[in-house]
Amino acid sequence: MTRILVVDDEPQLLRALRINLSARRYEVAVAADGGAALQKAADWHPDLVVLDLGLPDMDGVEVIHGLRGWTSVPIVVLSGRAGSDDKVEALDAGADDYVTKPFAIDELLARIRAVSRRTGQQGEEPARVRIGSHVVDLASKTVSGGVRLTPTEWHLLEVLVRNPGKLVGQRALLAEVWGEVYVKETNYLRQYMAQLRRKLEPDPARPVHLITEPGMGYRFVPGNDAIT
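^ that's the sequence the OP posted. Answer follows.
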C-alpha cells in the first residue's frame, strides 16, 4: 500500500484528502505544519508527499529543501499560490509537480498516480522513444526519417525525454542546457521547443508529446507505443 503524507494547515482539507485517499487504498498520514511534516517524513518514510506552501511555521519551499536534503520522495505541491514565480520556485527547489487550489480531486489523484508510476520506473532510462512517427535514439543521437537536430535541440530533448511525464521547470531547463546565467531567458525555450515540435510532432500546433505547462515549464508525454 502506497504511503502518502499530506501537509496542509486547513483541517477540513486534511480530512477530505484523508477520506478520499484512504478510499482509494492509500495509507495516509497528515501534518498541519512544516516542522511536523519533516518529523513525520523522517519517522514514517512516505512514498509520496502532498504539500501546501502556506504553512504557519515555515514556507513550504523550506520543507521541500529539508526533504531534498536526505530523500528523493516525490513531492506534489498543492497550493493556492497561482503565480508563475511561486510555481517555478517550488519546482526548482525539488517538487515533482504543482496543483493549484481550488482543485478537482480527480486531477490531484491523476497527478499522484503519474508521479507514483514515474518513481517506480526510476533507473530505467529509455534508450529509444517514439515521438509521432519518429524514433529518437538517445544513445546514437539519431532520429528516424532523416531528421537532424542541433546540439542544443538534442540537449533540451534529452532532459525532457529522460524525465518522462515529469514537469521540468523553466529555470531548471535553462540552467541545464544554457547555464545558470541564462535562467531568465525563457524566450530561448519557446524558440527551441517550437523548433523541436516542427521537426518531431505530427501537428506542431497541437503537440501531444512535447507539452507546455504555462508559467511552469515543459513535459514530455510518451506515447502508448513507446519503445525501449
